[in-house]
Amino acid sequence: MHDKSLTELRAALAAKECSAVELAQHFLGRIEAHQDLNAFVDVNPELTLAQAKAADALLHSGHAGPLAGIPLAHKDVFVTRGWRSTAGSKMLANYVSPFDATVVERLERAGMVCLGKTNMDEFAMGSSNENSHFGAVKNPWDTKAVPGGSSGGSAAAVAARLAPAATGTDTGGSIRQPASFTGVTGIKPTYGRVSRYGMIAFASSLDQGGPFAHSATDCALLLNAMGGFDERDSTSLTHAHEDYTRFIGQKWGNGGDNSGSQGAGKPLAGLRIGLPKEYFGAGLADDVRAAIDAALKTYESLGASLVEVTLPKTELSIPVYYVIAPAEASSNLSRFDGVRFGHRAAEYRDLLDMYKKSRAEGFGPEVKRRILVGTYVLSHGYYDAYYLQAQRIRRIIAQDFQEAFRQCDVIMGPVAPSVAWDLGAKGDDPLQMYLADIYTLSTSLAGLPGMSVPCGFGAGANAQRPVGLQIVGNYFNEARMLQVADAFQRATDWHRKAPAGVSNEPPHSLRSSPPGGAHASLEAARREA
Asked: What's the pTM?
């Protein structure tokens, strides 16, 4: 069961091959058996099985939607009633929320069953999941390697088949990068598409929730349930709700996109793929470049054409991000003072001493580093020189993307300059860790949708470490972006490969699927929705 897609699991539930309770028990057993990965920080079987029983009742009623009864895991940045909501920090190590985040609420309303809360970099600050108060998550493909961050626990859980899907958040690449490092599919929607209500804030103008799953089809189904306007979130967009699966399986050009005669009859004939020259220069590892080049050749075989574009401010995205994000973090984390909730020092002399000791004990090194940077750039005399200047360049970065989209329909390139690095390899050099986000930060700064799809593996000693292809769309273009990703996944099997030890079959094997696989049951799922 753990090798099936969401639509295959839903078909199994509808055919009564298993119940939601049995499915939940199966995945809870896998979580128990793979505790060494440290992917989960809180599991509550009693709550999980209660939700599964409710899902079985919904399925029995005959009014269940396409996600009813399917288990998933939540990144521990989403507050969740009944489970601890820690944001990977000692500051909130024992916090249990009295309410659900909108994302949690909507997925539960869709009938999905929560398996537990996944490990993450503290307050979503990190690129390796080594900054968690609860210890580092291990990459299931190579347990000596990081899984990426900050949503590393969610990505590792999906990759290891501990959950068929999971939620994550992406501030500067924290869905796309761990998806790349663990060989799963992950999508960051347009900023404001998914409600931030109940998401523990890091950088409010950048944070965006999104799903992890094995395929673009599965991600589209999850985004259908997660997305939409939320009046409780001041950053939520009033854009009309849409079906993100509506272009899955269709040829490019249906619905008014540009299409040409070259390659006519092929599924992506007329698609123009923009390749930013800044993404393919010095610093990109040879094995990552080889995997990306092979993926692009596949796209050409599907009828797409490649167009060179330029994003000239790409190299400035790192300093801009690491001014804006820490500034917003400094403001958001000021609420954690040991008074209202969260960690409080056991001994202190007075109120000021309590603030100092509680925050010193409750926050880890990376969080403290970013608070200090953020407080500095917001201070009198530096606000204009740093923060305002960074905001100006942010606007230029967004304009660069719009110029590029005049020449292409989607932008593609690597997610990260290398495959996953070894645990501890960059712990003493935060700057090297920050540089690993060079290809994802600009998309987040512009508020654009982006995703990672598995497209190969590294070489030599890194032959078991996955590579992800990044696909970036224009604003509100998620459905077309998912269509482009799905076409690639119909032509390749990278998204079906599993790490050794998590399947009954050898690593890099293609597990069997019923005729048509996930795609054959998509139409049935649409009819149920």
From this structure: 0.92
Rg (CA), the chain: 22
Q: Is 128 a catalytic residue?
A: no
Q: CA nearest 162: which of 214, 206, 126?
A: 214
- Name the token pair of 141: 């493909």
User: C-alpha 318: how far from its chain's center?
Assistant: 20
509 belongs to the catalytic site: no
Q: Could you write out the DSSP letters of every residue in 67-131?
A: TTT-EEEEETTB--TTSB--TT-GGGTT-B-SS--HHHHHHHHTT-EEEEEE--SGGG--SSS-S
- The values of phi and psi at residue 150, to 5°, are -85, -10
Closest to 147 in 3D by CA, of 37, 294, 284: 37
Which residue spans within 182-324 are E strands per DSSP? Answer: 185-188, 208-213, 272-276, 305-309
Non-local (6+) Cβ contacts of 412 within 8 A are 273, 274, 275, 292, 295, 296, 299, 469, 470, 471, 472
20 within 8 A of 29, measured Cβ to Cβ? no
| pLDDT tens figures, 232-247 | 999 999 988 899 999 9
Residues facing 440 on adjacent strands: none
Q: What is the pLDDT of residue 258?
A: 45
Q: What residue ranges define each of the domains in the chain, with the CATH number in brackets?
A: 6-252+285-313+397-528 (3.90.1300.10)
pLDDT tens track for 418-466: 999 999 999 888 888 899 999 999 999 999 999 999 999 999 999 999 9
Task: Give CA–CA dist 126/368, Å, rounded.
Answer: 12
SS3 455: strand
Is 90 annotated in the active site?
A: no
C-beta separation of 271 from 305 below 8 A? yes
Q: Angle at CA 300, nearest 5°, toward 296 and 301? A: 115
Q: How far is the CA of 87 from the CAs of 116, 163, 182, 183, 336, in angstroms?
A: 13, 20, 21, 24, 12
Per-residue confidence (pLDDT) for residue 261, from 0 to 100: 43
Choose, from 174, 195, 317, 452, the residue flagged as catalytic: 174
C-alpha pair distances (Å), 356 with each of 123, 201, 349, 359, 503: 19, 21, 11, 5, 49
| Low-confidence residues in the chain, pLDDT < 50 | 256-262, 504-529
Place of tokens 């009944």: 82
Instruction: Give the active site residue among 19, 127, 150, 195.
Output: 150
Catalytic site residue from 5, 19, 75, 188:
75
Structure-block tokens of residue 87: 């944001």
For 451, residues 6+ apart whose C-beta sits below 8 A from its C-beta are 176, 179, 185, 186, 187, 188, 216, 219, 470, 471, 481, 482, 485
Q: Which two tokens stand for residue 346?
A: 């056991």
